[in-house]
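Notes to self, Asp/Glu racemase:
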Amino acid sequence: METELPELFRRQSAATGHSYTFHSARAGMRTVSKAAELDAMVGKAADCAAAVADADVDVIAYACLVAVMAQGPGEHRAAERVIAGAAASSGHAAPVTSSAGALVRTLHDIKASRVAMVTPYMRPLTQVVREYIAAEGIDVLDAVSLEVDDNLAVGRLDPAGLPEIACGLRREGARAIVLSACVQMPSLAAVQQVEDELGLPVITAATATTYEILKALGHRPAITGAGRLLVGTLGPAS
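result:
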């Protein structure tokens, strides 16, 4: 998120003339494991929200998909309420999205009821994500786990390997590919290539979050090289 969102908004700014600033607060995590750190990470969300709200931002995005999903079905709704409340209590209320909520809402927006997915997680956590998405009415036909549990190592994965991985997904009947169901895993460099090669919409945690931020701002997507979603040719507004 911290590398891909600024790049996506740079492209949006170049296309539209809108000016954007990017502010972040990190809830630290080393091992991507529910037992170790995911639960604790969720508990830090309100403090992080208050920290970024201090900049009087126009939108807040909570960017840890699996930490929210590991709390149970539908948890993005509660997490977004907590963050909105923390921002309001700081004196700077702002609309809130979460990467978990953005992913499932965006898939509904583009009518992608069946998807194939790539995650960097260990298989048990991938199953958690799969079940969470299924509880929101979206069938995950296939999911590849890259089996990386070190959070810094996830951030250093090479997106150049994603097209080959995506081509290996079982995708008969799929309406979209979720190329990275993780905010830490780089994928932007591969999104357009995979979409062009497979002929299916390609969504990531980062592109879905960007899509929802733009909706909250009332700005039509106009971003090139990141899939049809962010060109503005998918979803209700297209």
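- The longest strand covers residues 139-145.
- The mean pLDDT is 90.
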